[in-house]
Write a structure and sequence with these properties.
The protein has 595 residues and is mainly alpha-helical. Helices cover 43% and strands 7% of the residues. The chain contains 26 helices and eleven strands. The strands form five sheets. Strands 1-2-3 form a three-stranded antiparallel sheet. A hairpin with a 2-residue loop joins strand 6 and strand 7. Helix 9 packs antiparallel against helix 10, helix 10 packs across helix 14 and helix 12 crosses helix 13. The longest helix is centred in the last third of the chain and has 17 residues.
């Protein structure tokens, strides 16, 4: 017989601002159980510094201090707590295997291993499903549009690889890049294009940022998304030119190396570019179009091949001289040379190193990095120690080994960041244990306001400078997604995949007709094997969901919660206890805020 659950609202301090009382009736036992679970976005925000008027981030300076050239070296010995913290920052969520590997290899040793790890890919999807735009017209395949004209196959691969593929750091950096250099299914829904674009970011995650910027610029998918494709000399589109400067490289305001804004004599920010710069870059980017499938004419818009880079269409290219950002392209220069000049000007701009470095820190470690932290990472972006600018391996290592990223969980009001819904969903299930083709996640992510690869605009799901509610200085981009209704949706999802997370769930078993579907299964066997050893359950949850920061009072509350769940079936009792404990912690700010 299934367990009946009654919910009663109570106030209490153990895991958040509210307690929720559950009455679990299993077997012959009937016991009351009150669990401390936060159902308020404000409790999550408070755990990230909300409500405080203090903190840094407010002062703007005109001259930056000289940044420290390299981060503080990481000690050789690594605690489980710091290993779990690194796993939060550099993977899609800690597992016991990842934590143990970090402890064994050390921080830099694990990063070295990850920099050479492989496993995830999208290029096979990009090369296998290119079809004509009208391909599904009259098709009897009810899944045709979802196979060829949606994000679903690519998103499924993203989630499947995020759950188990060994190259976790590469994937995590690629995901960060996808939220900086945004292209979205909202505007262009061609599956091969989505896959090819995400492969650019995955392949470039440990390459050079200039190559990423070049490949993004020439992407047919991006060409459609921001209108560089078919931009004509008679009326150049300024969309891509503007966003390449504003969002993909230097940002709108000139920056010191520590990420603070440079100011003029009146105290105003100094723009990085002018309207004439945008016009000049736009002219330099004219004369490109989509390759076509099956040798079709360049006028056939049903045969666009989004899996390949754009190709030259000379008649649309502006051959006159162009000037922008201090660079000059002479009259008669080739289209390739014009693109190179535009990308070089953006990549080499003085503000690009701090802008990109800060954006990556905010994605991986903290929403409010100190200027010194930004400066140290930006110095590595500008020069990896061997005279190379834009070396992503050096940048990623600098971010993850910095003194502000390592050590025990930081508890200052400026430290940490709110988990965005997608990361919360994946991290929870990596901790639980799940074999999946990714389909269950695709069915849920839109409902929690973060359908991967379907950002509502080029500005991503949230701006990085979104203000932390209740605080006058701190920023918290993901908090934009924590509306009251979406917090409830996230909690409901966590409940459904823990307390109600048995194999009968339809999203685990329903075949959507999409290539790669194998079904999904939550692995409760390891939790059942713990039997009545509640302390072992709590220790595992503490490590994987709270990075070993659980207090004695919180452990006692969980023991009481577990003891109130009984069932004549020993395995089912152990599973139900684990599911409830995972739900309690998984919906608390101690899990939903990374520090």
């Amino acid at each position: 017989m299934g367990d009946a659950i009654q919910v009663n609202d109570r106030v209490g301090p153990a895991f958040g601002t509210r307690r929720v009382g559950y009455r679990i009736m299993g077997g012959s036992a009937r016991k009351s159980l009150r669990l401390a679970v936060s159902f308020s976005a404000l409790s999550v925000l408070a755990a990230c510094g909300g409500g405080s008027s203090g903190g840094s981030g407010g002062g703007l300076v005109s001259v930056a201090p000289t940044p420290t050239p390299s981060p503080t070296p990481t000690p050789a010995a690594v605690s489980q707590q710091d290993a779990a913290r690194l796993a939060r920052q550099a993977t899609f969520g800690p597992t016991t295997e990842v934590v143990n590997r970090i402890v064994t290899l050390g921080i830099n040793g694990w990063i070295d291993e990850q920099l050479s790890a492989t496993g995830s890919r999208y290029d096979d999807i990009a090369s296998s499903t290119a079809v004509l735009q009208n391909f599904c017209t009259g098709s009897t395949d009810t899944a045709c549009n979802r196979k060829y004209f949606s994000r679903e196959p690519v998103a499924m691969r993203f989630y499947a690889d995020a759950m188990v593929a060994p190259d976790q750091l590469r994937q995590r950096v690629a995901f960060a890049l996808s939220q900086i250099l945004v292209a979205s299914e909202t505007e262009v829904n061609e599956t091969t294009g989505i896959a090819a674009y995400q492969q650019i970011l995955l392949s470039g995650a440990f390459g050079n940022y200039r190559d990423i910027l070049q490949n993004v610029t020439m992407s047919s998918y991006m060409g459609d998304y921001l209108d560089m494709a078919d931009s004509n000399r008679t009326a150049p589109s300024e969309n891509y030119a503007r966003e390449m400067l504003q969002l993909f490289s230097m940002g709108p305001d000139q920056l010191n190396m520590d990420g603070t804004r440079r100011l003029d004599a009146t105290g105003a920010a100094i723009p990085t570019y002018t309207p004439d710069d945008i016009k000049g870059v736009a002219r330099a980017l004219t004369g490109w179009t989509y390759p076509r499938l099956n040798g079709a004419a360049t006028s056939d818009n049903n045969a666009r091949d989004y899996s390949q880079a754009m190709i030259v269409i000379a008649s649309r290219y502006d051959i006159t001289a162009k000037s922008f950002l201090g660079a000059t392209v002479p009259a008669g220069a080739s289209q390739q040379d014009s693109v190179k000049a535009a990308v070089d000007a953006a990549f080499n701009h003085a503000s690009t190193a701090p802008y990109v470095s800060k954006a990556l820190i905010q994605q991986l470690v903290t929403s409010n990095p100190s200027p010194a932290y930004v400066g140290r990472v930006a110095a590595r972006f500008a020069d990896n120690g061997s005279g190379v600018r834009g070396d992503m391996k050096a940048v990623v290592r600098a971010i993850l080994t910095d003194v502000e990223a390592r050590g025990a969980a930081r508890t200052g009001t400026n430290d940490g960041k709110v988990k965005e819904p997608v990361l919360a969903m994946i991290a929870l299930m990596r901790a639980v244990g799940m074999t999946t083709d990714g389909y269950p996640f695709v069915t849920q992510d839109n409902g929690i306001a973060q359908a991967v690869f379907r950002s509502p605009s080029v500005f991503n799901f949230y701006p990085p400078d979104y203000p932390l509610p209740g605080n006058v200085t701190l920023k918290s981009g993901p908090s934009k997604l924590l509306t009251t209704s979406n917090v409830v949706r996230v909690h409901n999802l966590i409940y459904n995949w823990t307390v109600s997370g048995d194999q009968t769930r339809s999203e685990f078993t329903t075949n959507p007709g999409i290539p790669g579907w194998t079904g999904s299964k939550t692995e409760w066997g390891a939790w059942e094997a713990m039997g009545t050893d509640t302390d072992a359950m709590i220790a595992r949850i503490d490590l994987l969901l709270m990075a070993n920061t659980m207090t004695d009072a919180q452990k006692a509350a969980l023991r009481a919660a577990a003891a109130a769940i009984t069932n004549a079936d020993a395995n089912l009792q152990a599973r139900r206890r684990a599911q409830m404990l995972l739900y309690i912690v998984g919906t608390s700010p101690h899990f939903l805020v990374d520090r």
